[in-house]
Design a protein that fits this description.
- Belongs to the CutC family.
- This protein has eight helices and ten strands.
- With 251 residues, the protein is of the alpha/beta class.
- The protein has a single domain, classed as Copper homeostasis (CutC) domain (TIM Barrel), CATH 3.20.20.
- The strands form two sheets. The chain has an eight-stranded parallel beta barrel, surrounded by six helices.
- Helix 1 runs parallel beside helix 8 and helix 3 packs parallel to helix 4.
- It is globular and about 55 Å long.
Length: 251
């Protein structure tokens, strides 16, 4: 029997986690604020998702929107968050720190990997990989550090655009597994299975945009970026996850 293909779903609410699990997700990447690429989730969100679901939870650690060049204070927060979520039972930590030159920051990455493995958990390098200077060198570095998974689109905006690099990574990887993300849906899964038969792990959000239940909508006042509507919610759609699951499991 062939090895099962793993489907990870990125969620930032209990509602999305429940939909993802019902659709067939093997695990969650739990974050906050998915609309801006994800930030660290709150402890209360983690506990609620743990309480109401059974899937494994890998927790995204990201102190803010933007790049992955962190100050000492920001890294201190990341380290404390890693320690706390692991103590609370996270199955994995998802993080990444870069140098100004676009390489992985060795001492910080080593510390985070050690924290995860010391707790018997998995460590994933997130899409900081997709903005690093040299992907093959970074893969070798990850393998030396003991990174378990690399979440990547092949350094493109979508995984289908990134197929050439993904193929190289899957061929070169010995210990670290390649987790393919960005634009993953049922159609992409079918194409990826055909073009990258060695791929075993896939990451998606399966999101849909819902309208807020607010009836009164004050105009001209933004709580954040003016380009983002205050009255639209991103939620994982169960049927989107199920369609990807079925595409993964198809003989």
């Amino acid at each position: 029997m062939s090895e099962k293909r793993i489907l990870e779903v990125c969620v930032d609410s209990v509602e999305s986690a429940l939909a993802a699990e019902q659709g067939g997700a093997d695990r969650f990447e739990l974050c906050g604020n998915l609309i801006i690429g994800g930030t660290s989730p709150s402890p209360a969100l983690f506990r609620a998702v743990r309480r109401e679901t059974k899937a494994k939870i890998h927790v995204l650690l990201r102190p803010r929107f933007g790049d992955f060049l962190y100050t000492d204070r920001e890294f201190g927060i990341l380290q404390e968050e890693a320690e706390s979520f692991l103590e609370w039972g996270a199955d994995g930590i998802v993080c990444g720190c870069l140098t100004p030159q676009g390489a992985l920051e060795e001492s910080r990455m080593r510390r985070l990997v050690e924290l995860a493995h010391g707790a018997g958990a998995c460590f994933t390098l997130h899409r900081a990989f997709d903005v690093c200077r040299d992907p093959m060198e970074t893969l070798s570095f990850c393998e030396a550090l003991g990174v378990d998974l690399i979440l990547t689109s092949g350094q493109k905006n979508t995984c289908l655009e990134g197929i050439p690099l993904l193929r190289e990574l899957l061929t070169a990887a010995k210990r670290t597994e390649i987790l393919i993300g960005a634009g993953v849906d049922a159609g992409a899964v079918l194409q990826l299975r055909e073009e990258l038969p060695a791929a075993k792990q896939f990451h998606m959000s399966g999101k849909t945009v819902l309208q807020s239940g607010m009836e009164y909508r004050k105009q001209g006042v933004s709580m954040g970026l003016p380009s983002l509507s205050e009255f639209e919610l991103w939620r994982t759609e169960e049927r989107n996850v199920r369609a990807a699951r079925e595409a993964l499991d198809r003989a």
